Amino acid sequence: MKKLFASILSAAMLVGLCACGGSKTESAAPASETEKVFKVGVCQLVQHEALDAATQGFVDALKEALGDKVEIDVQNASGDSVNCGTIVNGFISDKVDLIMANATPALTAAASATADIPILGTSITAYGVALDIENFNGTVGGNVSGTSDLADLKAQAAMIPEWFPECKKVGLIFCSAEANSRYQVDEVAAALKGMGIETEEFAFTDSNDVSSVTQKAADSCDVVYIPTDNTAASNSEAIANILVPAKVPAICGEGGICAGCGIAALSISYYDLGVTTGKMAAKVLTGEANISEMPIEYTTATPMYNAAFCEQYGIKPLEGYTALD
Q1: Contact assessment for residue 324 and residue 308, using Cβ atoms and an 8 Å cutoff
Q2: Which of 93, 8, 16, 50 is nearest to 228 (CA)?
Q3: Can you give the residue range of the structural domain that contains 260?
Q4: Which conformational region is residue 135 in: left (phi greater than 0), alpha (psi within -120 to 50 degrees), or beta?
């Protein structure tokens, strides 16, 4: 009887050991976390050269970093900030792991819609302005970070007398609905005032009044300045159709706008900016970096000129400037 009891006890212990081993195998299953496919939503405000390049750089960098372990859904808001909100809410419903917001309205829509999903902005001129942060110190905190397309505004202002030393009055053309454009115009106007150059603002509300507003600027100014502005970028041909016949040259905040209607710009590569954003996204998704601690990143700006427009205006390009592609 004792032998029988000992045999039963040994068998029970063996079963118990096997059960423990089985539970270990099951608990190890979540190691398949490494096989997780991340879902990323991209909300781009509008289609134009600069934003398209930033999105492409982002996608290329993120795909290079994560390969098949990331799915990227790119959606375009067609220039409508309301559409940005709709797109972002769709991403939230789809439980994406990260949102990339390309341009300020996309960023503000994402930031107001979720405090949990990581958000990376790109093509944002000033995060403090975009997100209404006083005394912005370079890091947003919370679930937001990203990259900025801001080039030195004082240097941009200095380009105007450098190219046009006889200039007495500069027209500042921008979209009144874009807070970052207002910020750039204010900074450039202050810098030009310090140089003794008069300025006047010419603001359009949307694409419908771009031509009429540009005409007013061309009628009363020697030179115009156009900041990094999405509405201007989408309507650079319409702006050129007014400025070129009037022989009023434009200095621009970025290369895409300059290619469409300008003489020169202090411009960044939006593709490179997107690549930087994509690399940041890879670090956030893999847990290598905490988005709340990631400072806003910038890229180098290059002085560039538009050879075709210089020829049309009869202007000799300055040394130290690179021709736009």
Answers
A1: no
A2: 50
A3: 153-267+303-323
A4: left
Asked if residue 133 has pLDDT above 70, the reply is yes
Q: What is d(CA 51, CA 256) in angstroms, rounded to the nearest whole number?
A: 9
* Predicted pLDDT at 34: 56
What's the predicted TM-score (pTM) here? 0.82
Same-domain status, 253 and 133: no
From 92, 79, 1, select the one nearest 39 (Cα to Cα): 92
Whether pLDDT at 67 is above 90: yes
Give per-residue burial for 223-256: e unless 16+ CB within 10 Å, then b.
Answer: bbbbbbbbbbbbbbebbbbbbbeeebbbbbbbbb
Domain count, the chain: 2
Cβ atoms 88, 113 nearer than 8 A: yes
Q: Measuring CA to CA, how many Å separate 78 from each of 51, 125, 235, 255, 292? A: 12, 20, 13, 21, 30
Given this model, what pLDDT does residue 325 score?
A: 81
d(CA 238, CA 173): 13
**Do both 250 and 114 map to the same domain?**
no
